[in-house]
TrEMBL record:
<dbReference type="InterPro" id="IPR029069">
    <property type="entry name" value="HotDog_dom_sf"/>
</dbReference>
<comment type="similarity">
    <text>Belongs to the acyl coenzyme A hydrolase family.</text>
</comment>
<dbReference type="InterPro" id="IPR040170">
    <property type="entry name" value="Cytosol_ACT"/>
</dbReference>
<dbReference type="Pfam" id="PF03061">
    <property type="entry name" value="4HBT"/>
</dbReference>
<protein>
    <submittedName>
        <fullName>Acyl-CoA thioesterase</fullName>
    </submittedName>
</protein>
<feature type="compositionally biased region" description="Basic and acidic residues">
    <location>
        <begin position="145"/>
        <end position="159"/>
    </location>
</feature>
<dbReference type="GO" id="GO:0052816">
    <property type="term" value="F:long-chain fatty acyl-CoA hydrolase activity"/>
</dbReference>
<dbReference type="InterPro" id="IPR033120">
    <property type="entry name" value="HOTDOG_ACOT"/>
</dbReference>
<dbReference type="GO" id="GO:0009062">
    <property type="term" value="P:fatty acid catabolic process"/>
</dbReference>
<dbReference type="GO" id="GO:0005829">
    <property type="term" value="C:cytosol"/>
</dbReference>
<dbReference type="InterPro" id="IPR006683">
    <property type="entry name" value="Thioestr_dom"/>
</dbReference>
<feature type="region of interest" description="Disordered">
    <location>
        <begin position="134"/>
        <end position="159"/>
    </location>
</feature>
<dbReference type="GO" id="GO:0006637">
    <property type="term" value="P:acyl-CoA metabolic process"/>
</dbReference>
<feature type="domain" description="HotDog ACOT-type">
    <location>
        <begin position="1"/>
        <end position="109"/>
    </location>
</feature>
<keyword id="KW-0378">Hydrolase</keyword>
């Protein structure tokens, strides 16, 4: 499980009991899980479809640093299932677990669309793909400029 995001529990995140408000935690988890699903499926159009029961294992207090962990447990045809855990960064004591969060990959019409993924994509792979695609930019820019020059030459020859 990868723990990417750290949060510092502040006064505005507390419930009247003086511990971390569950709603704040769920908002952070939903966003973190959505980002994870977006990166795994390489598509910004993903929506939360299902969340299993949430186990608030222990409370966090003001000043605690907590970290949010995610892992993909299943790749479906249009969906991805994640397991989530939040823990205290220093003590590693578990604060919350969600066994199952399902996100659905959508097309431009908002309909479920196959994502074609079958296994976890790691950050290095995503970066390598980005580097590969950005390497192609100058080539395609040259190709576009060549096309423009050819069009100008053709236009000139018509005059
Ligand atoms: C997401 C949505 C388009 C899916 O529509 P749908 O008619 O349920 O689509 P499908 O029946 O084709 O199911 C899509 C996928 O979700 C899975 N799924 C559907 N219901 C599920 C459930 N209760 N639990 C787990 N997975 C479920 C299906 O198994 C399928 O996955 P697969 O293709 O990998 O097998 C629709 O339910 C929706 O728009 N929901 C609202 C989403 C939303 O607003 N979320 C909150 C804000 S992000």
């Amino acid at each position: 499980m990868n723990f990417h995001t750290r949060k510092w529990v502040k006064p505005e995140d507390l419930n009247p009991n003086g511990t971390l408000f569950g709603g704040s935690l769920l908002r952070w988890i939903d966003e973190e899980a959505a980002i994870y699903a977006i990166c795994q499926l390489d598509n910004q159009r993903v929506v939360t479809k299902f969340m299993s029961e949430i186990n608030f294992v222990s409370s966090a207090r003001q000043g605690d640093i907590i970290e949010l962990g995610m892992t993909a447990t299943h790749f479906g045809r249009t969906s991805i299932t994640l397991r989530c855990e939040v823990r205290n960064k220093i003590t590693r004591k578990s604060i919350l677990t969600v066994e199952k969060m399902v996100f659905v990959n959508l097309d431009e019409n908002g309909e479920p669309a196959p994502h074609g993924r079958t296994q976890i994509r790691y950050a290095e792979e995503t970066f390598a793909r980005y580097r590969e695609s950005s390497r192609q930019v100058p080539q395609s820019a040259v190709a576009v400029e060549d096309e423009r020059a050819a069009a100008r030459a053709e236009a000139d020859s018509l005059h």
